[in-house]
Amino acid sequence: MENIQEGPENDRKEQRVPQKQYLTCCLLSAAFFGALGSSFLYGYNLSVVNAPAKDIKAFYNLTWLSRYGEPAAAETLTLLWSVTVSIFAIGGLVGALVVSFLIKVLGRKGTLLANNSLAVIAALLLALGEKARSFEMLIIGRFIIGMDSGGSWLTMTFLLFPVAKA
Fold first, then answer.
1. Residue 133 three-state SS
2. Which end of the chain is more exposed for a tag (fewer CB within 10 A), N or C?
3. Would you give the distance in Å from CA 158 to the centre of its chain?
4. pTM
5. For 3-47, what is each residue's pLDDT tens digit?
6. Is 138:19 a contact under the CB 8 Å cutoff?
7. Residue 114 burial by CB count (10 A; 0-12/13-18/19+): exposed, middle or buried?
8. CA distance 72 to 69
9. How far is residue 110's CA from residue 9's CA, in Å, rounded to a whole number?
10. Residue 24 and residue 157: Cα distance in Å, rounded?
11. CB neighbours of 116 closer than 8 A, spacing ≥ 6?
12. Do residues 63 and 134 touch, judged by C-beta distance below 8 A?
């Protein structure tokens, strides 16, 4: 039989080295769906207004004409367009600032579920804005979808961090 002596040299040999951790299915699926639900929406909504810019400006002009009996001035259309594009980023800022409070109150999963209601409200406002002949609905819808994007982006970070550590 071997005679094992207790001492500092033998203590080091018996210590276990932690195993190298690999990507798990849970981590990959969480990252995929997290990116699809937060980063993808953010990028899409940030750039989606650029393609139909002429159509949206024409809608703004028609709405202005039906309300006030005269077409909107070029400066007014530029101002409305600028507000429509930039309000998304302001909504994202508000959503990112509010989400830490919501996570404390509702938890990470509850915050994501509540955040989905913002996406539904924004989708309804954006879809029904033309029917209602209201460019204000488009602007408010962009603000709310910005809040949704900013909130979900930050919440997904909080949700993925523990999964990545596990």
1. coil
2. N
3. 13
4. 0.74
5. 555 555 555 556 676 666 677 787 777 777 766 666 666 667 767
6. no
7. middle
8. 9
9. 51
10. 18
11. 148
12. yes
